[in-house]
Write a structure and sequence with these properties.
The chain is mainly alpha-helical and 215 residues long. It has a domain of 131 residues: Alpha Horseshoe (Serine Threonine Protein Phosphatase 5, Tetratricopeptide repeat). Helices cover 60% and strands 3% of the residues. Strands 1-2 form a two-stranded antiparallel sheet. It is elongated and about 55 Å long. The N and C termini lie far apart (45 Å).
Length: 215
Amino acid sequence: MTDRNLTPGRQWTRQQAAILALVCMMTGIAGGWLIRGSQHTAVAVPAQTVNKAVPAAPAAAPAPTATDPAQLKQMADAQAAPLLRKLGAAPDSSELLTNLGNLYYDAQQYPTAVGYYQHALKGTPSDAAVRTDMATAYWYMGNADLAINEFNKALTYAPDSPNALFNRGLVKWKGKGDGAGAVADWKRLLAVRPNYEARDKVEQMLAEVQSHAGK
């Protein structure tokens, strides 16, 4: 995470500070997970929305939990405050905009993250890592088409980006039912990066897709 200096009166407890840093380390739901394009985190995030709208909140809201969206947003807003002050002096700083996008992404505030990523990419449109993160945010927002479109753009700038290939294959498979397209992406990934850190996961998904195709 980026700058953790908070304004007076907005200090977190140690437990609260850990929530935002660790929220992306939750176990992924069966059916796949995406890998971040940027290098500030290398953990998987749960596929909470799979090509469908985010479900509406229940009529009677439960008590806040460690992953309550409102609580996560509040903590992200607090952590964003010093970055926003810096951004005031450099409103087009791709680095600051990306850091803000990453912060809100990690807090599962995907629309806000996308807004910052879009602004960052105006200055650095060829940043495949940021574009990959924005694509994954679109996926978690329930839009497979926009996600694939951004993965495609990322791969025009970095044709062998392993994480973009990994993620595009997963979205093709789970979001569009395109098993053949997914297999092509993952085989290309393993060809260009035989020592890919998530190779076991890629091989597992390849076997699953090809097994379904065989049936």
